[in-house]
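Lab notebook page, bench 4
Experiment: in silico fold of construct C2
Operator: M.H.
Input chain length: 546 residues
Purpose: comparison with the prior construct
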Amino acid sequence: MTVSQSQSGSHTLAASLLIDNQLKAFYFEERKSVALNDGTVLTSDYDAKKIPQIRDYISNNKSLIDGKLYGKPVTVKRVKQDTIEHFLLQLERENDGLSNESINQSEPSKRLHQYLQIGVDRGCSDVHLEVYEKRTVIYIRVDGRRIEVANIPDPTYGGQLFAYIFNSLATEKDDDFVEKDANNGHVSEVLECIETIIEAGKPVTRKVKRITGWRAAYVPAKRGGRCTLRWLDAHSEIPPLEEMGWGDGHVKVLRDYLQSASGVCIIAGKTGSGKSTVLASALNEISPDRSVMTLEDPPEFDLAKAIQIQIKPNLRVKENGDEMRGFGYYSKQTLRHDVDVEMHGEVRDKNGAMELTRKGETGQLMFTTLHTSSAPGIAHTLTEQLQVPAAVIAAPDLMRLWIYQTLVRKLCPHCCMTMEQAISHYRHIPTSNVNFWLENIGKVCGSDLSNVRFRNPSGCNNCVMGEKGRTALVEMVVLDDEDRDYIVRKDYLKWQKALRDKGFKTVRDHAISKIKSGIIDVVTASTKINNLLPIDTADIYRTFKM
């Protein structure tokens, strides 16, 4: 075997792959090596386990290309992993979404394919693979609710899944799988997905095979570990802002901001609260006459009007240097690309926050996300946790729009219960906390309860346990100079009162509006909104018996 020391990733992508069923299995079992029709093996790793098998198979096979490669030496060239993935994805597409089971018959691959397909069939956002001392448990998260789909009394079952994901399947990973080390990567899997198309003016639902993308994150734990697979491209199309569950006023405010020349918009919320979807929908509305770039880890949507850059926070710029290919590095690079609108996927530290504000002050329209629990709380998170000077946050016209969002499951309109039906149902279940809310709903929603509805725990054919889909609860701060004055003085308590005096609507207000309209269940909302029914702390203390 001849081994080329070329490090180039520029080998022609137009060259044809050498393909038969056995070679397909070799290619997809490890996803590190492929062979071309001229007998060259391309690999992203000279130590890849499949190289000798591919080499021997080509050299000893008289039927491949009429025996033209039989007995001839095989050249191996190193290329980038992205090049290998290009060939593999092309092969999957050319085979009309070739089933992963037919490509890779290893037991862990079939297990993973099965669980991902179950998740896709039920509209999941995440798949959780959890290993404990004596068992492996598989969950999927659907509309925010975690559902167990398998419980296997064998921890090695999950360990094999972890090893398969990070040794054979994942790309752009931190490293190969080591049980004691955290790891991150990207997984592609061909699955059957439900898509809705318009035929003869009517929506038609059908199943199609397509390549799905998942972000894989592993963390070790005592006597086990967990791998979370987030479905990145669950939406075949980016939903418009009107379908987010926002109010008309919310949509108008964000669209007005999109027309601005510069400034910063921050969208806050917990993991899985729809922040990335909002950003994708907003960026999708920007006119193509404005230059748009995003920095993401990893990109979650395919934006037709933006150049999307995947940052590499764990990869050094230079082999022996200290600078990493994170948000700060690529943010500096984009200064040379005449950008009008820029999105940084997430603010994680002071350096990232300072880079964001610097861009906002120098004439670009900036977007980012932040993990915090309210729109006004963005100020405290930036100044106290990320150590950004309050004077920077309060600079005139810099911070323009702060948004907090959370997602709440929607009631099923086919089986939800009226107040009377809920009272009749739950009077026989005195231990249910629903009775508490039936007694106190008036304190939250006032006297008009005619449209209030409750979840039917039995559900129906159209839902899961009385709920289906999710809607957003939103609060927005449209910053003005009065707000900036409170921020620079860090007078957050008085600022909260000043906001309410100006008419600021909290996420609690939005929740109450949707409860009164029969869109969401008050009990479900109470699990997402703190103090939905405020209780005086004096009343709490009186319950303490000494």
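Observations: The chain is about 35% helix and 25% strand. The two ends are 83 Å apart (CA to CA).
Next step: discuss at group meeting.
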